[in-house]
Write a structure and sequence with these properties.
With 589 residues, the chain is α+β, with helices and mostly antiparallel strands. It folds into 3 domains: 154 residues, DNA ligase, ATP-dependent, N-terminal domain (DNA ligase i, domain 1), CATH 1.10.3260; 213 residues, DNA ligase/mRNA capping enzyme (D-amino Acid Aminotransferase, Chain A, domain 1, 2-Layer Sandwich), CATH 3.30.470; 131 residues, Nucleic acid-binding proteins (OB fold (Dihydrolipoamide Acetyltransferase, E2P), Beta Barrel). The protein has 21 helices and 22 strands. Helix 11 crosses helix 12, helix 11 runs parallel beside helix 13 and helix 12 crosses helix 13. It is globular and about 70 Å long. The termini are far apart.
Length: 589
């Protein structure tokens, strides 16, 4: 049967064809052919959907639908027990794939005609974003899936879950647009960054109007990332002409967007104060403005009434009292909250430490060298109680790094960042132009995969956590590496236990063990890494201890098996037992 290009079934079939090949050029060709068939309105929607978004990044609307709601909707329509759904989810690993399987077995769903279009789906998703409450959202999702064929339902659920999982990321969509409309891919990438909307970028590319794109604030730009330095000689090798040294702060990475004249734009992220809009975004590209209302006024004061004086700043939010930076554990009390009570604001005061600038004076600065960006940053009226300029020194060689590292630790910070003075800002990239020199004890960023009921006073909580690393930077398969239960306060255990219960996909041993959605990241330390057949990674951590949760870090950025293998070769002694004043900088690498 032939369908209109605007039919949702055509979108779903295109996604199936893309998933069936591992070759990037073929994926781009399939996607490009599909894009060429669509009218402009559907092209906007399809480009966003294939990039994994429902709305533009600038749009503050979110679907906010959880795994439990999807489970209820799917099991209701398929008329199956939740236990069967959970069993298949553990096997298939994706709720969209489960929806397709169980609905294909349902006669009524299998015989449904395809009536949904890209436009009608987007309209229903807008309705879903507009309602609040789990019950109302679950009801709307259930009614939506009642209209869908099994294949359509598969990709509706994948969209709601936030990932199509067909081997296609936003960069591949940019590539397909460039190929389809015969424009340079670098230009497509640049315009997508400026606008914060792959849908708008698609239209500009189709009509050869990419040059007309202008910077539009209040959508997060991906953060440039640093690589760990294995040895100080790497600094000399990568930056022989000298470098900048900054403190590595133990807070959460944040990006501040500040602009005038946007009070009436209610769809934008941020808070308006004194006719100035301010928005804060985390490294996961989530808006966190409401978590730090005490920073807004000070950030707004950085610009004047000059409409061309908008700013985008990169930095770190840290807990601070006076001149003393507090332990990260204090900041954790404020994380994960959309609204923060005044008592907590007073208990855990924070500051925004600014160390880079991405937009100023009506100019995008990411292609300017660091030394130029820093000069512009130094011209701002910073260094207030709430907004401070990050420390920045220039060195010709590594001879002073030991002393600088010790001083950074004395200031309450993790270590050092070493940056090439000529480095441009590369959004979403991790390279050797920025190197990080961190703390002595070995740590790993991992994700919880299972939780088990504890013993003693924690017998009512899921307090023992199995965790995993990624197979590699490009392979997201998770491999378990250990299990830990120490290091957290009772309050933290309660919070994580509640989270695990809400994100359980399968219960074992009558609820004693829960397999959970792999979304909650932990930072763990340990004595050493050793070979083990107990975990599918082939390794285990000796005496693991949880340092903190990392709600600021996405699962895509946790450590990999390669890191574990390197640690297995080098971590033979728990350096946490060595007094800080007896460690040299080189022993921190």
């Amino acid at each position: 049967m032939t369908y209109s290009p605007s039919a949702l079934i055509e979108f779903a079939q295109t996604a199936e064809n893309i998933a069936a090949t591992s070759k990037r050029m073929i994926k781009a060709s399939i996607l490009g052919d599909y894009f060429n068939k669509l009218v402009d309105e559907d092209l906007i929607t399809a480009a966003r959907f294939f990039a994994g978004y429902i709305f533009a990044l600038r749009d503050q609307r979110t679907i906010n639908i959880g795994g439990a709601a999807l489970q209820t909707a799917i099991t209701t329509i398929a008329n199956i027990e939740k236990s069967k759904y959970q069993e298949r989810l553990v096997k298939l690993g994706d709720p969209g794939d489960v929806a397709f399987e169980v609905l294909s077995d349902n006669v009524k769903s299998r015989q449904l005609p395809s009536t949904l279009t890209l436009y009608s789906l987007f309209s229903k998703l807008e309705q879903l974003a507009a309602v609040s409450g789990t019950k109302s959202k679950t009801s709307l999702v259930t009614e939506l899936l009642r209209l869908a064929t099994p294949l359509e339902a598969k990709y509706i659920v994948k969209l709601l879950a936030g990932d199509l999982r067909i081997g296609l990321k936003e960069g591949a969509v940019e590539d397909a647009l460039a190929r389809s409309f015969k424009v340079p891919v670098a230009k497509v990438q640049w315009v997508n960054m400026l606008t914060g909307d792959i849908g708008e970028t698609a239209i500009l590319a189709r009509h050869q109007r990419l040059e007309q794109a202008k910077m539009r604030l209040f959508h997060p730009i991906k953060f440039m990332l640093a690589s760990p330095a294995d040895d100080l000689t790497e600094v000399t090798k990568q930056m022989p002409q000298g470098f900048a040294v900054e403190d590595k702060y133990d807070g959460i990475r944040a990006q501040a967007h500040i602009g005038m004249g946007r009070k009436g734009e209610d769809s934008l992220h941020g808070i308006v104060i004194n006719d100035c809009r301010v928005a804060l975004f985390s490294r996961t590209l989530d808006e966190i403005t409401g978590t730090f209302p005490d920073l807004i006024e000070s950030l707004a004061q950085l610009i004047s009434d000059d409409i061309d004086n908008d700013l985008i700043l990169d930095g770190e939010i840290v807990p601070i009292r006076g001149a003393k930076i507090l332990p990260f554990q204090e900041l954790q009390k404020r994380l994960g909250r959309k609204q923060v009570k005044q008592e907590l604001i007073e208990e855990v005061p924070v500051a925004f430490i600014v160390y880079d600038i991405l937009y100023a004076n009506n100019c995008v600065l990411i292609e300017a060298p660091l030394k130029e960006r820093r000069t512009i940053l130094d011209s701002l009226r910073l260094d207030t109680e709430k907004v401070q300029r990050g420390l920045h020194k220039q060195f010709d060689d590594i001879s002073g790094l030991d002393a600088e590292f010790t001083a950074a630790r004395a200031r309450g910070n993790e270590g050092l960042m070493v940056k090439d003075l000529n480095s441009t800002y590369k959004p979403g990239r991790r390279g050797k132009e920025w190197l990080k020199i961190k703390r002595a004890i070995a740590t790993l960023d991992v994700v919880i995969t299972a939780a088990e009921v504890g013993t003693g006073k924690r017998a009512r909580f899921l307090s023992d956590y199995t965790f995993a690393v990624r197979t590699s930077e490009t392979e997201p398969t998770l491999l378990n590496i250990g299990k830990a239960y120490s290091g957290l306060t009772d309050a933290e255990v309660t919070e994580i236990s509640n989270w695990c219960r809400a994100h359980t996909i399968q219960e074992l041993e009558h609820g004693r063990v829960c397999i959970v959605e792999p979304k909650l990241v932990l930072e763990v330390t340990f004595d050493r890494v050793q070979p083990s057949s107990r975990h599918n990674s082939g390794f285990a951590l000796r005496f693991p201890r949880i340092l903190r949760t990392r709600t600021d870090k996405p699962v895509e950025e946790i450590d990999t098996l390669e890191t574990v293998q390197n640690l297995a070769e080098t971590t033979h002694v728990n350096e946490a037992s060595v007094p800080p004043n007896e460690r040299s900088c080189t022993r921190h690498l």
